[in-house]
Specification:
The chain is α+β, with helices and mostly antiparallel strands. The protein contains 2 helices and 4 strands, in the order βαββαβ. A hairpin with a 2-residue loop joins strand 2 and strand 3. It starts with a strand and ends with a strand.
Length: about 100
């Protein structure tokens, strides 16, 4: 298994309950496909560096996990089609 890090930004108009549900949904994709989450950090609502689709704020989430490349492909696919996600980035965590 390889180490990965994913950061995604959720829409600011989501309720706290919807944010938790969405974070759990993405965590379940990792764990149900054989990966393991080593660290998960809901950083809260923050101002975006620049406006994205007329939005100025978003909920930032950072997750460190170990998984096979197939898990990352599935997570990438689901993040792309989720309406709650504004932006995301998955990278290899070498450190």
């Amino acid at each position: 298994m390889r180490k990965y890090e994913v950061m995604y930004i959720l829409r600011s108009e989501l309720e706290q309950e919807a944010v938790q549900t969405t974070v759990e949904k993405f965590a379940n994709i990792i764990t149900s496909n054989g990966g393991e989450i080593t660290k998960s950090d809901l950083m809260g609502k923050r101002r975006l560096a620049y406006e994205i689709n007329k939005m100025r704020d978003g909920f930032y989430v950072l997750v460190h996990f170990n998984a096979e490349p197939a898990v990352v492909l599935e997570l990438d696919r689901v993040l792309k089609i989720s309406d709650e996600v504004i932006r995301f980035l998955i990278v290899n965590d070498v450190a």
